[in-house]
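It is worth pausing here to work through a concrete case rather than discussing structure prediction in the abstract. The textbook approach is simple: state the sequence, then state the predicted structure, then interpret. We follow exactly that order.
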Amino acid sequence: MSLIRIASVTVFGLGLLVGAVQSRDAQSQTLASETVIEIPAQGGPLTPVRLTFDPSNPNRFAVVDVSDGRLSVWEFTDVFEKQLDIDARAVAVAISPDGNVIASSTINAEIYLWDKNGEQFGNPFVGHEGSIQDLDFSPDGNLLVSGGWDGTVRVWTLDGEQQGDALEGHTAWVRGVSFSPDGTKIASSSIDGTVRIWTRDGRLIAGPLLGHERWVEAVNFSPDGSFLASAGDDGLVRLWNVNGMPRGEPLSGHRAWVVDFAPSGGVMASAGDDGSVLIRNHDGSLRREPLRGHAGSVQALAFSPGGSFFATAGYYDGTVRLWNMDGTPRGEPLRAYDPWFRALAFSPDGSTVAMAGDDGTLRLYTVDGELIGRPFLGHGSWIEAVAFAPSGDQIATASYDGTVRVWTRDGATKNVFQGHTSRVLAVAFSTDGSMIASADQDGYVKVWKSVDGTRIATVPAHSSKTTAVALSPDSSLMITGGSDGTVKVWSVDGKLIREISTAHNGTVQTITFAPDGETFATGGHDGVVRLWDSNGDPIGVPSGGHRAWVRAIKFAPNGSILASAGDDGAIRLWTAEGKPIAAPMFGHDGSASAVVITEDGSGVISGGYFDSKVRCWSLDTVPQG
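Step two, the predicted structure:
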């Protein structure tokens, strides 16, 4: 009978457990000591809806959190630092050109002014009825324009005096207002589906501009003031000359909440309800593939005054993200939540764990919980899969941004593989590290040379998602698994050798080869672990030991046993013939999503999907075949 002793458990965020014994019949565990390692959130806005930069400081911005109406001001160098936190009951925000005045509006038809220290000054501006949806300062800083629920646009001096009569014409809420760069014009957009252009003293120049079929969420002038862009709930961004004539064809791509122009470089961007950000030239042509760093709607976007980067805010994911103009992340996101680790992987020797988050970062830790170096930055969306090269000196990540990145252990990007047109769900190295296979949501698998990213093959592997992939130790075979439950055996250049149509009842989640390449194992959403010879013939009977999805499987270095990790939180050991060894090991709060057997075969290390725990288990007796 094999005995399994829990020698130590390292818990990221929750503690260190040491000392317990478990046998085939016992499942008791004893907590002996505990330590805490945390990756704290920075206290960012929970539900950010408005964001604006300080025109006098390219690294300073203000953001409105609609969940509680708080207005926070942040500065970013290498990290985010909160400078102000104002209980403003805010809906909209604007910062004066000299950075000395912050204006905010409320749902109660009030406008407040705050100094650089967050102190209110003057009396609230009143005149609107209902919520004031947007604000903008004139370029000289002497005037403030507002638009709101009552369908009017109003212009104010900074002592709260309304200039002239309200600008009337919209038949519903005004959602966006903007001064022209020379301060002589004002543009407004409304949920009545129109855009209007006014002089600053209230005379209508152009409009209503018709074209949007639904709400017009935002409007902004180009840097030279010669045209403007409007973002519509109809899924279109439209460009207009200042005389009101359409400028080219409408731009499709997403249901846009906001559109803004970079101060230079001929660049504009829009953010959408689908979480995407589209970066375009002024003629409307796309500069790159959509950025997809947010989970859910992006309702705020603004370029920094220097024009070297821009910020986006996710309504549902509670993050503010900074982006360089080439679409790469500019530091870690500002988060309201602790990061959620989407993918885990262990180095071949079990000494290092790679943890990839929903924030698009990759972090390396020792199994004792010590952070190694700085987070790896590069992906524009969350990382779905991580794999170490067999040598342990490189790491590959697969992301929802449609790319595969290869990193050195010190965090340098060695290669970026582009070519997938959908989310990349799985990635694997060949044993010699010369090839990488990646699988995507559209069912395609691509095989690359790891040294330079040359594409060796593109394989339409499955009719739906390809969710798992593995390369044989001799690099001659590739095994793929899909959400359709099938497993397929291919030559590495993409020729189908065999299809196993009934491999699993549901998605195939994980595939791994034995070290000798004669056997491979698969695990699925049906909770079953299956063994196959390299021809695709089954070995033994399916092992249904997990009560939920099987997330990961790994063979021991000598191939005599394998370990599996599942959504039931269990770690299970199996002989090479698929027979269970001892009782399952429990300890994760929720899913166990990664597992490795140490090089000498004396231990098992497991990682948790939700609890961010890494547990080290010592094996007293290991079958040697």
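Step three, interpretation. The first strand starts at residue 4 and ends at 11. The domain at 339-502 is CATH 2.130.10.10 (Methylamine Dehydrogenase; Chain H).
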